[in-house]
Every structure is written in structure tokens, then in C-alpha cells.
Specification:
Blueprint (H helix, E strand, L loop, with lengths): L1 H32 L1
């Protein structure tokens, strides 16, 4: 059970990280275009 909760938290953290990273890439690209 503990492993499951830990895994879910890690997955959530990973999603959060990649979302922030994707947003950063998008903004960097957008800044270059304009």
C-alpha cells in the first residue's frame, strides 16, 4: 500500500515537472517567434 501511494506521488510529481518543462519550452519558442 505504501509503495502504491509513493508511486502515485512520484508520478504526479513527474507529470508536474514535465508540464512545467513543456510550458518553459513553449514560452522560449514563443519568445523567439516574437
Amino acid at each position: 500500500m505504501t509503495t502504491y501511494i509513493l508511486g502515485a506521488q512520484l508520478k504526479e510529481l513527474w507529470y508536474c515537472e514535465s508540464e512545467v518543462h513543456a510550458k518553459g519550452l513553449w514560452e522560449a519558442w514563443w519568445a523567439q517567434v516574437y
